[in-house]
């Protein structure tokens, strides 16, 4: 039921999943003036994010980059720098081509597809929507490619080296080409598939992902730590993804340490496998499946056989991306989404023709503090 916190006009309307879907996250927030929030509004929005994980504000076409930054920063007022910091300066990072920084607000990036003559101080830029053919081991045939797609890469927005994972990410849909929907094919032997709008951003709840585990696996997840590769997006750059976007194939393609930028051991991230929601106390199974390098078990045993590490993580995570559990956002221009980056996984889907122009703004900040573990 819609409700608002005392003194704020903002009302909260949980998303109703389409028939057949069973996900239990997502909410639309109405009556918010994001350029001018009161303290009561801010409290309502923060509560809503940690209760519903993904919150949507409609009709935010005129939201300034500064206001986007300020709303995103509500969840971590001490955080000021972009979530990947300067780590994307390295030209070899797999994330580098996807982002253009807004000069007046460097925590806000422009992403999308096609040629853009001028936008927020950026002139004559060409955006490129990530296509699974650049990342997946096997790909959908050219003739099927217009109507079929994949989850590009399930992930957390995080540098996972040196910097702390952002608490929240925001996405503003500035320009959205509306065309026929697409079928997401898992192509992992399950026969699973899901209809989404073209260019949908797909989300799953990592709390649900945890809840689906057996008691034995929950115990394992609560007591195991994940060590991420140093400079993970450069390290994994030669690797290819599973067809459902949930982690990488293991073919010994990862770059050796000697081919990476200098490594400070103190900057390597070892994080809990389960991250606690600061409001509800719920545990999320929160692992970036492509960046994982080692698992450290409760008794101190280190699993460093990468193939084995990935198999374990995949087995734990795969049930959580079942088609019924995925919210594929059907973007409309002016949609502004903020998500709990420590409680959901998300991925790009879809493909666009070269001249189909799509413009989005993304914002997140490296957090001012580490993640909450299960203890
Ligand atoms: Fe992302």
Automatic annotation (TrEMBL):
The species this protein was found in:
Periconia macrospinosa
The TauD/TfdA-like domain, residue ranges: 18-363
Q: Which UniProt keywords apply?
A: Dioxygenase, Iron, Metal-binding, Oxidoreductase
The Swiss-Prot or TrEMBL record lists the needed cofactor(s) as: Fe(2+)
Asked if the keyword Electron transport belongs to this entry, the reply reads no
Q: Which InterPro entries does the entry mention? A: TauD-like_sf, TauD/TfdA-like, TfdA_dioxygenase
The protein in question is named: Clavaminate synthase-like protein
Q: To which protein family does this belong?
A: Belongs to the TfdA dioxygenase family.
Q: Does the keyword Oxidoreductase apply?
A: yes
| Gene Ontology molecular-function annotations | dioxygenase activity; metal ion binding
- Cite the source lineage: Eukaryota, Fungi, Dikarya, Ascomycota, Pezizomycotina
